[in-house]
Amino acid sequence: MRNLKKIILFFTGILFVSCGGNPNYQKNLATAQKLFSLHGEEKIDEQLALVSKDIKLYAPMYGSSEPLGYDEYASIIKGYHNSFEDIKYNAQVWLPGVDTLSMKPDGSVRTYGNWTGKNSITGKEINLNGYWYFNFDAEGKVIAQGDFFDYGGMMQSVAPKTPVLVTLKVKPGKKQAMIELLNTPDGLQATRDFDGSLSLEAFFNDETNTYYIYGDWTSYEQYQKYLDWRFNDDESKMAQQVMALCVGGEKGLIPIFPNTDYSSFSN
Description:
This protein is α+β, with helices and mostly antiparallel strands. It has 9 helices and 9 strands. The longest helix has 17 residues, at 2-18.
């Protein structure tokens, strides 16, 4: 009888380990796998049915420190469905997670893998490696999700571009004054923070005494809204201050848009 108990305990231990050390792991694993499978099928309602209304999403965007909620989660999922097609996740491994305090398996799920697909507008293919984790509530729904991958790099590689180039023909001897002005919070940082700005870069050419500002926007309509704000409603009067440092005033500030036939090249 004692040997029989040992055998039962032995096989119970094997079963416990095979379930990730937590009786809920296999069920939660199936949920996580289904969530990713439905993502590829673009079945957003079925996806959201697996997610708690109290979900906290830790997104991979640079500078994103606070978790996003359910509505933001749904919006991001819909955005992916609208922007990409033939989405497929190829898991390299699925792993059980542990409680960080007790170091015991807690039923959470982790995975390393690769997403493939293509941008719906540009047709460019994605090849994205990353890591994801899923924590679950008592009902078996995803209560927390963490995404770790190069979101900016992915979008830079495959997304459509709405490029704008601004040239500032700076008065002789006013280079440093222009740079300092644009580096104030009301300068280029306010431009980057404006709704629709996706990226912003700037540099100065000493030979021509010209300051170049290159940006990518969600649309030219949105950039026009930015210009309307800068020239009419911006309380800092930044546009007017910039023009005062330009050769010819307003004529020295030249936004170049709209632009077409954007191309990028890589090895």
